[in-house]
Amino acid sequence: MATGSEVSSRAGLRALVLYFLRLGAVGFGGPAALVGYMRRDLVEHRKTVTEDTFNLSIALAQIMPGPLAAQTAMAIGYFQGGVLGATLVGLAFILPSFLMVLGLSALYVAYGGLPWMQSLFYGIGAAVISIIAVAAYRLAGGTNKRDPLLWAIFGGLFVATVLTGTELAVLFIFAGLVAVCARAWPGMRTGSMIVATAAAVAGLIWALERFLHVAGAAGSDGNLLLQILLFFSKAGAFVFGSGLAIVPFLQQGVVHDFGWLTEHEFLDAVAVALITPGPVVITVAFIGYLVAGVAGAALAAVGIFLPVYFFTILPAPWFQRHRDNLQLRAFVAGTTAAASGAIAGAVVVLARRAIFDLPTAAIAIVGLVLLWRFRVQEPLLVVAAGVAGLVLWPLFRG
Fold first, then answer.
1. Do the Cβ atoms of 184 and 330 come closer than 8 Å?
2. Is the alpha carbon torsion for 195, 197, 202, 206 positive or negative?
3. Higher model confidence: residue 226 or residue 121?
4. Does residue 246 lie within any of the structural domains?
5. What is the reported pTM?
């Protein structure tokens, strides 16, 4: 017979899985916004996840390779419910957007492309910037509070992200190390070991990132489905940063190395990911479907998310076991502040691409007002922005 604590634990895990099922179905805005929603809903409103657990989850997601939103969700699932929690939360978060993308893929193939996507994203892209901006502001405020050191780390990562246009994983390690040195220095002997370990991890990350530039196309035996699985597994295992960071790598592979898609088809794939809720990397399902139908979509999704899953559940026990260690707590605080800075910087980077004329600027400003002043629900804003895009695109860009 189950004890009261076991029943309560199962009920808590069920509620968490249902929450991520809903977030995967209606959570727009990409990784920055999705992580912001998780903090707002689970830490601030529902109070079912502690701030320490949330920060630990973000730190794990930032240090390990893989898309930020999906990995943060799996980490939260692990810390709340073990391997079963990580598995169920991951599936719940990914499945809704996968099914939506599958449906759009079938329509795309059946009708020879979706020309209305360009019009739709014209409005939605601008609205997404306002969603991410509000989420980034709230995440930074909740994470850094009034701590000058954390805000300094935030500023450094913000500037680095804006200048480089990408999230640099090595800097997250450095940010954590700065916090350890400033707040929890354990002495020369132990401190030297921590610095050496951090340097080794940073070196490994650097080596993995450089590997992406020289890695050849995976799979050469002509088995298309195997090639899809291997290629997307490599992408999931070796791309750091948010889900948006994977786009250039995918473009190189599917357009130039394999020739699976044309440039136009690849841009349509990215658009599909941005106009559907859930993790941005679900664009791989669209790519897989165009290459090899439903089987290709399924293997692409398995390939991209399976490494993320293992990169979460394997190191998570160590993180959980040492979560009260002063040095780890300082390291987590530094990397979390770095994450908030990188996400804020991503707002600027993405805004340069999504806001390029008066109508898109107006949509973004109106979106900010509606979200900040009137607290309009994000899915409603996305729908309204999509309608605005369909109306305004023929007038201003057609």
1. yes
2. positive
3. 226
4. no
5. 0.77
